[in-house]
Amino acid sequence: MENTSIPNHILVMKYGGSSVGSPVAMKSAVRIIRETKKEYPNLVVVTSAISGATDALIKSATDASSGNLTTAEKTAHELTARHHELIDKLVEDPKIWLQLKMDVNRLISEFVNLCNAIKILGELSPRALDAVSSLGERLSVRILSAAVESAGIKSKPVESTQLIITDDVYQSASPDMELTSVRCKKVLYPILNEGITPIVTGFIGATKEGSITTLGRGGSDYSASIIAVGLEAEEVWIWTDVTGVMSADPRIVPDAKTIPALTYNEVSEMAYYGAKVLHPKSVKPCVENGIKMRICNTFAPQSQGTILIHNNDAVDVGKIKAVTTASGFKLITVSGAGMDSGMNASAKIFNGFVEAGVNVPMVIESSSEQSLCFPIDIKKVNKVEKVLRTILEKEISRKDIDEFEISEPVDILTVICSGLKSHPEVITQVLSKLIENQYKIKALSYGASDVSLNIIVSSSDSISALKAIHQLISF
Ligand code: ASP
Ligand code: MG
């Protein structure tokens, strides 16, 4: 009879692709599991695919759909070699070693067959793309589990298609939390109660009918939160290749610092505006269920990293914690003397965008309502222009609306600081810094969030403007 009683103090740890992407990294990941297990015997590990694998799989499938199988062949070769190397360096038992090599070869053949089918069909359905892109995690989970076993810890690979039940929105599926919680408990509690560490695939789920889905790029963080909620875990630790959440991208600002504590709101705003720390959807499930989150560095496990805290417990209120940049936008301005409140131009525009599936990250409207501007992903500007011409056809022909203005490429700088509204001096400091350095502010959004200030600057200014704002960080 399976033991489904609730294990105490469950910890979910998630490894990103770089934390398992080389023999050295995976050894460190295994060491961390062994150490952590002493304090948290009920440990569940979620892992991403090895670094670069998902990109290569997606590229192979895309190229196959246009008749080119060379990428798939190259990927099959490279992924086989990298996974075999991990097995050679991390797995000692000859029986397990052989079994794993066969598993890798079988999954790689599955990949090659899928790409062949995609080539024959000449099209890549969203469903087929998820079948291909999920293979990275299906490979990594087996090797990490065997490596953990080799280190003397009982372990078992688990495919999260058994655990995370989603809708059929391929590439960006959402979990049915009720069903998922039941599955997580049913599958993982007995494993934990036997003293075994489950190593679970990140990124993937399945529809009720069993077809593989994925949760969106970088979705393994989200998998970890979903599983933590399902298991009623105590904490989630996200292991990555930087020391927690940094005050800026360290490749841009070499003296960027680790932020010791960030509220859920602060980290969500950062993730939304381009800081690749955490999948934006991964925070909410943990906050709502009182599960603590921590972000740690696989390559410096002793360092504190960043702890995510409740919005009410914000520290360093009124101090800038971080500045991020999201690039690749153009600013579209719609204006006209005939545009006024009676015309409902903004309602029309945004309804049109919803229908056309266009995402607008921020909006600025003048108080007369005669002018409205918003950044749009550069790749979508042509589409957006067409949508605008269609929905505002009448207004344009009546000359109530002038031609739209489309800017040069711009970036969105986001300044993260809890308590912005009660600390207006922060805005003065940021703007003075930009003006002092003669950066032109193209648009500004403040007030909607108490933790972030968004500034649009020309793409050619954004890196140096970001560095200038970073000088204001004083925590
Ligand atoms: N392997 C997936 C990706 O590259 C998921 C993840 O790494 O979190 O997007
Ligand atoms: Mg990631």
| Biggest sheet, spatial arrangement of strands | 3-5-2-1-8-10-11-9
CATH topology of the largest domain: Carbamate kinase
CATH second-level architecture of the largest domain: 3-Layer(aba) Sandwich
Tell me about the largest β-sheet: 8 strands, mixed
Total number of beta strands: 17
Q: Compute the number of structural domains.
A: 2
Description:
The chain has helices spanning 17-20, 23-39, 53-65, 70-90, 94-121, 126-133, 135-150, 177-193, 220-231, 264-272, 283-288, 345-356, 381-391, 393-397, 425-436, 459-470, and strands at residues 11-15, 43-47, 155-158, 165-166, 197-201, 204-207, 212-214, 235-240, 261-263, 292-297, 306-309, 322-335, 364-365, 371-377, 405-416, 441-445, 452-458. It is an alpha/beta fold. The chain folds into 2 domains: 11-241, Acetylglutamate kinase-like (Carbamate kinase), CATH 3.40.1160.10; 322-470, VC0802-like. The strands form 3 sheets. It has an 8-stranded mixed beta sheet with strand order 3-5-2-1-8-10-11-9, with helices on both faces. Strands 13-14-12-15-17-16 form a 6-stranded antiparallel beta sheet. Strands 4-6-7 form a 3-stranded mixed beta sheet. The longest helix is centred in the N-terminal third of the chain and has 28 residues, at 94-121. The chain is globular, with a radius of gyration of 24 Å. The N and C termini lie far apart (54 Å). The model has no long low-confidence stretch (mean pLDDT 93). The structure holds aspartic acid and magnesium ion.
